[in-house]
Design a protein that fits this description.
Length: 450
């Protein structure tokens, strides 16, 4: 009886509160358990945050900024290796040299606007007020990101009218928590987009036209989020989920015009003040790559498919929990099952009423798929050798937000009713699959023997 009572009490706890407890506890553990600068690109994110903490926003060059010697040298004093942080390295490698003067710190994201690093920069600034120890200040910055991202996600789960379990699962993926508990701008990018999505779906669910305040909030969110990580613009096709008053076309047109012009203005300001800063792979030729994509769309589609097939394990693991730099740390077969089936069962076994019509599902699905496509194009253009058969640098964590939209597109969708209504679809899939199998068999036989 006591066990049943305990289970009933647990069931009565709201899911957003459960998330907050787990997120803060697990996230705080990750803040201190993960050695400094062992999150992907954390050195660059630390430098950007440090520049904000020291009130220096202007890049010395496209990839460098002047920082105090202590902060510029700190990452080099904390190198613990890409695989294992030995106790002696982790505890004894830090020394406080108290150097004076400014040093140019090189980073690949100097050109970026400060939106994604303000929170960590504020935490670092507060840490500097209390201590001269750079390591202690470092953890203030990590904790600031964690607290902001976790609390904002808590409010998002609380606000969203349905699909709370989807946000719960995505926000508690080990990779998501790993980013939340670091200097990475992904912490701010992911949590702000989750809040944006919850805000939009809440308005949609109430079936009321958005008022001026709501439109302003959405416009600000889109502007900030899209300028944290460039290349995720298709995510915001989801704005068309909103029930705009299309009878007043002039007002709607004016709103979108202001939104687009504001973002263009920010891009121009960034280029003028901070520099272009586009870091490309030495063997890449962006202009030629783009020409190739435009003139060979079928071949490029094959490159995307080839990359996803050949790197499926790496991509999957990167979405779930490929933590740190390098290393071939893959899951055991049961772990793959556990990481896949349990969340899917948790999400899709709950029955609830949604306001997801066919139109809204199509918009969400297109937003997710087009974002995946644009990210793939960007990496092929700037990070891949010309005519390479696969895309270089594609990692799973880039697809967290597109997959979130795709999950919402499929949420509570009646597949049985759909296939009953469109009975020709399955035979077509089977037919084309059979044709493909026959073609591949003949082609591979020909290639082998002739």
């Amino acid at each position: 009886m006591k066990i049943n009572k305990l289970l009933n009490n647990i069931k009565s706890i709201k899911i957003e509160f459960i998330y907050l407890i787990i997120g803060l506890a697990w996230g705080t553990t990750m803040v201190f358990l993960t050695p400094p600068f062992q999150v992907a690109d954390e050195t660059h994110h630390y430098y950007k945050s440090a520049s904000i903490a020291e009130h220096n926003f202007i890049c010395e060059s496209s990839d460098g900024i002047l920082l105090s010697a202590d902060k510029a040298n700190f990452p080099h004093l904390m190198q613990v290796g890409p695989v294992r942080a030995k106790e002696s390295q982790y505890i004894n490698s830090y020394s406080n040299p108290n150097e004076e003067g400014l040093i140019s710190a090189r980073m690949s994201i100097c050109y970026s606007l400060p939106f994604g690093h303000i929170i960590a920069g504020a935490g670092l600034f507060i840490g500097d007020l209390f201590t001269d120890n750079e390591l202690v200040s470092f953890y203030f910055g990590r904790m600031a990101n964690l607290l902001f991202a976790t609390i904002l996600t808590y409010y998002s789960i609380k606000r969203i009218p349905y699909g709370k379990r989807i946000l719960f699962v995505f926000a508690l993926l080990p990779m998501t928590l790993f980013q939340y508990a670091s200097y990475s701008y992904d912490a701010i990018h992911i949590s702000l987009f989750i809040f944006y999505l919850a805000y939009v779906l809440d308005i949609l669910h109430k079936s009321k036209q958005p008022n001026n305040t709501q439109l302003t909030v959405i416009g600000l969110l889109i502007t900030v989020i899209s300028n944290i990580k460039i290349g995720y613009y298709p995510l915001f096709l989801s704005i068309f989920l909103l029930p705009f008053n299309w009878k007043n076309k002039r007002k709607v047109f004016k709103y979108f015009l202001i939104l687009i012009l504001t973002n263009i203005l920010l891009i121009l300001i960034r280029s003028k003040v901070l520099g272009n800063g586009l870091i490309t792979y030495e063997l890449a030729n962006p202009i030629e790559q783009i020409k190739y994509i435009l003139t060979h769309p079928i071949d490029f589609s094959a490159i995307i498919v080839n990359t996803f097939i050949s790197e499926i394990r790496v991509l999957y693991y990167g979405i779930i929990s490929r933590l740190g730099w390098g290393g071939d740390y893959y899951l055991m077969p049961f772990d793959y099952y556990q990481f896949t089936m349990f969340p899917l069962m948790f999400i899709f076994t709950k029955k609830e009423k949604t306001s997801l019509t066919k139109k809204t599902r199509i918009i969400l699905l297109l937003s997710g798929l087009l974002t995946i496509l644009l990210v793939s194009i960007a990496l092929y253009a700037i990070n891949t050798q010309l005519y390479s058969p696969s895309i270089r640098g594609l990692v799973g964590r880039y697809f967290t937000l597109p997959l979130l939209l795709i999950f919402f597109a499929l949420y509570q969708f009646n597949f049985k009713e759909f296939f009953n209504k469109h009975s020709y679809i399955m035979p077509l899939i089977i037919f084309f699959s059979l044709i493909r199998i026959i073609y591949v068999t003949i082609q591979s036989t020909f290639d082998r023997f002739y």
